[in-house]
Amino acid sequence: MSNYKITEKELQFLKDVTEIVAPSGFEEPVMELIKQHYSRYADSVKRDNLGSLILVKKGSSDTPKILVAGHVDEVGFLVTSITQEGFLTFVPLGGWFEQVLLAQRVVIRTKNGPVYGVITSKPPHLLTPEERQKVVQINQMYIDVGATSKEEVEKLGIRVGDPVAPWSPFMKTAFPDRIMAKALDDRIGAFIALETLRYLRENNIEHRNTLYAAATVQEEVGLRGAETVGWIADHDVAIVTEVDIAGDVPGIKPSEAQAKVGKGPTIVVWDRSMIPNPRFKEFVIEVAEEAKIPYQLSAVSGGTDAGRLHLYKGGRPSIVIGVPTRHIHSHVSIVSISDVENAVRLVVELVKRLDAETVKKFTNI
User: Fold this and answer.
1) Beta strands in 104-235 (DSSP E)
2) 183 burial type by CB count under 10 A (0-12 exposed, 13-18 middle, 19+ buried)
3) Annotated catalytic, 219?
4) Which of 219, 220, 242, 341 is labelled catalytic?
5) What pTM does this model have?
6) Which of 10, 354, 335, 360 has the alpha carbon at shortest distance from 181?
7) Percent of the chain beyond pLDDT 70?
8) Percent of the chain topping pLDDT 90
């Protein structure tokens, strides 16, 4: 098994990459940081026309082509109007539960730089008893940047169409193994794909295939980046590295979410967008057990980039490797560093073993 470990250098990268404001459709600053840190480990760099980035590392064989992909867009918002009083209305980019939004600080990415604001609505003091019992809808909320007029807002450089993301600094928790940040869904998955590439390169590890480590875009608004990135990679096998819903929080039944933080990465056996190739799934389980990497089996209700990548051309064996994550699609999530490390170790071991003969067994073609 690989001895991969996350050091302070990698934690600094995670801090930098998660704090960038980059919701769906506005991922370019993340891509620039990834290129800066990881392009040196690639034999070539590819882009598609939606903006997804692919770093290619050649092994001892051109085929099979192994695509390891994580999306870098985060759930966020987009400014739709500026009121005469100086408030911003907005729409969600990705899935939000309204109850997590009010009183949260956000960052608007403008042509003049970041502007900070807070999501708010009609004060509770002025609500009727009936109104207080209802969830405030997004169309009843606004962003307050401290302005008193539309003109003041416009002088800040804020325009309709500007992206907005939560303001949520990266930090370690009181427990050394756990971190909290925004955008872990799914920059932690892209990090796993990129770290797999780096670890293979720096340790001169042989792999009888070609690795395509991809950072995809616009997953949160319909798996759009995966739709196009497959045509650039022309992959034979896809490994999607993602977050998984941690079920170890109050109110969640074991039947609803099986994953627990700190117990290893998950091998997703079913989600709303894909039923994994059974032979490939069993292969992944066998590799984890052979390499003595802790893992969990998980069935989740969401969808991932694998939902598109497994449908590429005539179909491609695909699997999702997840990191149990608390509080996804909110301003702050929590993950275990050891789960991330074990996810990288598992993906490294998979890439080492996925040669042409092995991949052929998944489909008998």
Assistant:
1) 105-110, 113-120, 142-144, 163-166, 171-172, 178-181, 210-216
2) buried
3) yes
4) 219
5) 0.96
6) 335
7) 99
8) 89
